[in-house]
Design brief:
Helices cover 45% and strands 16% of the residues. By secondary structure, the protein is an alpha/beta fold. The radius of gyration is 17 Å and the shape is globular. Bound molecules: cytidine-5'-monophosphate.
């Protein structure tokens, strides 16, 4: 699986995202783009088609979680949008993840990369224990869910770059780690807590880094993107 920098396009309108992507028109590398719920719910499937037509790969971050049959049918729809990567919640169970893979697979056997969210980073140990009644340490739960995703045949998980090494140890080096929480050494951390630079994420074995504000809010987004690529991919 090739290493790449995925730009989190956390914009809430088509005008804003297109204005941002216009900066990348021209000769250079076209960023792999993450489209989240906010933009997808605001603009609908058409936004995926339009960004795809501009030559970008797309990670559609909708984190599906429902009964297996519903997830299977929904995944078939997302696969038809020709996205390159999408995701679901591993807490939906192995049966749900297997159904998702089935739905995602196109008649010709091809399919987008499918990755799982284990526990959201907003879920603390305390919330998991008290609200969800899961009585195990959170890092054990994360690794167990990653292992379930592997058993179901998924390609990988979203995790902190700090967990990428452990995930590879547990699930194998081919199991993809997609890691947000990336910041430049001389940049703003913002609301992220545990961060790594692109170079550190590369060293620890992340396969894809997801970078939002260090690129989208930079004075020169193309230069910031190229810096990520230089540190992480090249
Ligand atoms: O702007 P920033 O680089 O913090 O954006 C990171 C992106 O990764 C956002 O789209 C955020 O929702 C997403 N993400 C995250 N932490 C996770 C999972 C996803 O920051 N555990």
């Amino acid at each position: 699986m090739g290493k790449d920098v995925i730009v989190a396009c956390d914009f809430s309108s088509k005008a804003d995202v297109m204005n941002f992507l216009d900066k990348f028109n021209g000769e250079g590398r076209k960023p792999f783009v993450k489209i989240g719920m906010e933009l997808f719910y605001a603009e609908g499937p058409q936004i995926v088609k339009e960004i795809k037509e501009r030559g970008h790969k797309i990670f559609l971050d909708l984190k599906l979680h429902d009964i297996p049959n519903t997830v299977k049918k929904s995944m078939a729809v997302l696969s038809g949008l020709d996205v390159d990567m999408t995701n679901l919640h591993a807490s939906g169970t192995i049966a749900m993840m297997e159904a998702a893979l089935e739905g995602l697979t196109r008649p010709d056997g091809s399919r987008p990369i499918l990755i799982a969210v284990t526990q959201l980073t907003s879920t603390s140990q305390e919330r998991m224990t008290n609200d969800l009644l899961i009585n195990e340490p959170i890092d054990k739960v994360v690794m167990h869910y990653a292992h379930n995703a592997k058993l179901a045949g998924l390609d990988g998980v979203v995790c902190s770059p700090l967990e990428a090494g452990k995930v590879h140890e547990t699930c194998g080096n081919d199991f993809v780690t997609v890691t947000p929480g990336v910041r430049f050494a001389d940049g703003d951390i913002g609301d992220q807590v545990r961060v790594m630079t692109p170079a550190e994420a590369k060293k620890i074995g992340s396969d894809y880094i997801v970078v939002g504000r260090p690129i989208t809010a930079a004075a020169d987004p193309v230069a910031a993107y190229n810096r990520c690529v230089a540190e992480f991919v090249d």
